[in-house]
């Protein structure tokens, strides 16, 4: 596990009750932040820079980019049966990567008429907004899903032993948020989602993301073939990297999560190196791509709100992120599923509720910490990297 973040001001002891109203005024689903499962932080920073450079054209830019955004009113869908809304300057964001194969994503597999949350991360931003803990939730985790409203009307009854990513397939973003809140006792302030094509386009608009691979990765299933060494990954290669599982570690989703966490840090490191604030044309391309790529809660579904959101998080760099995988073990009855380590999971959620670092004891012995893919991919900050293959 990486160095634990020091919490900011306004901490609470683990047993304390946290006062209601927590977070920033920019709130969608409710309670309290990370770089989206695949790079939302760069997206919103690019919007902020574009507005700063817009001058007389700012009104037009707002109109054009606002038209790209898709928002989901999660507050209205979930109502009041949620964890307490607290207000001490911290923030929590659920970030999902959707595996939809419809429309522009059809090239990544057969369209089965729906989508699931291929990647899920809870981002907890500590008071002061200098550091954050990111907790990855394995998509194959067997969880107790609460009852959820169905998109076409009616309600899906609660179920035990459902895969986590089925919550999104069942009831969309609101059901995914409700499941996370039920698991953690933490109210999500915001929701951010991106699909395969949006992620690929965003990486391309940035000019690629530099990484170093410590050994070769060859996975025909994700169409990724990288020798060991330095690479600047284009969008297709980056998508292959965050989807690959068979060529790294133990071949499980847990190894893939370790690659995703490494890529997130590389992506954030690239944000300071992409020249976004000095190249208006590139900045506009990034902002246009970003607003088309993201689906957010209604509290973030405007350029103005995204800019404010980005500005509140700009103090968090790659070095301020602590990446954790939710403690799990393989299901003894099905090696393709994992089950929560309940007592250790409780330590993780209690630490976040109290704005404290996740203790090392919480992840000790977890299958997610021992998947064998850690260190295979590392950030490469130099812009003189070689092209990937």
TrEMBL record:
The chain crosses the membrane at residues 42-63. It holds the Pfam family LytR_cpsA_psr. Residues 116-270 form the Cell envelope-related transcriptional attenuator domain. Residues 1-35, 359-389 are annotated as: Disordered. It comes from the Bacteria. Residues 379-389 have a biased composition (Polar residues). The keyword Transmembrane applies. Keywords: Membrane, Transmembrane, Transmembrane helix. NCBIfam families: lytR_cpsA_psr. Belongs to the LytR/CpsA/Psr (LCP) family. This is LCP family protein. It comes from Streptantibioticus parmotrematis.
């Amino acid at each position: 596990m990486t160095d634990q973040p020091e919490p900011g001001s306004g901490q609470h002891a683990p047993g304390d009750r946290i006062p209601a109203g927590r977070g920033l005024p920019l709130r969608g689903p409710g309670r309290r932040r990370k770089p989206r499962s695949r790079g939302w932080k760069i997206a919103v920073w690019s919007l902020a820079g574009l507005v700063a450079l817009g001058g007389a054209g700012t009104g037009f830019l707002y109109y054009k980019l606002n038209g790209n955004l898709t928002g989901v009113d999660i507050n209205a869908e979930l109502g009041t049966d949620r964890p307490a809304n607290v207000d001490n300057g911290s923030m929590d964001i659920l970030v999902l990567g959707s595996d939809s194969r419809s429309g522009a994503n059809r090239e990544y597999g057969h369209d089965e008429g729906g989508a699931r949350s291929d990647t899920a991360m809870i981002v907890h931003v500590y008071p002061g907004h200098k550091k954050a803990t990111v907790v990855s939730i394995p998509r194959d985790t067997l969880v107790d899903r609460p009852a959820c409203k169905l998109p076409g009307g009616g309600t899906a009854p609660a179920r035990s032993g459902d895969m986590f990513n089925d919550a999104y397939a069942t009831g969309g973003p609101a059901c995914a948020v409700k499941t996370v809140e039920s698991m953690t006792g933490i109210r999500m302030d915001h929701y951010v989602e991106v699909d395969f094509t949006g992620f690929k386009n965003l990486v391309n608009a940035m000019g690629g993301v530099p990484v170093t691979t410590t050994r070769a990765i060859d996975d025909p299933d994700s169409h990724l073939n990288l020798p060991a060494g330095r690479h600047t990954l284009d969008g297709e290669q980056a998508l292959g990297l965050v989807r690959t599982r068979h060529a790294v570690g133990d071949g499980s989703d847990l190894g893939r999560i370790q690659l995703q966490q490494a890529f997130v840090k590389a992506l954030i490191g690239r944000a300071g190196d992409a020249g976004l604030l000095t190249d208006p044309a590139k900045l506009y391309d990034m902002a246009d791509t970003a607003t088309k790529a993201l689906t957010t809660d209604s509290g973030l579904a405007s350029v103005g709100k995204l800019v404010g959101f980005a500005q509140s998080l700009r103090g968090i760099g790659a070095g301020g992120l602590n990446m954790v995988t939710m403690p799990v073990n393989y299901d003894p009855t099905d090696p393709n599923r994992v089950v929560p380590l309940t007592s250790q999971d409780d330590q993780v959620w209690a630490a976040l509720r109290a704005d404290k670092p996740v203790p090392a004891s919480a992840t000790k012995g977890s299958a997610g910490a021992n998947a064998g893919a850690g260190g295979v991919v590392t950030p490469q900050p130099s812009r003189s990297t070689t092209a990937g293959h």
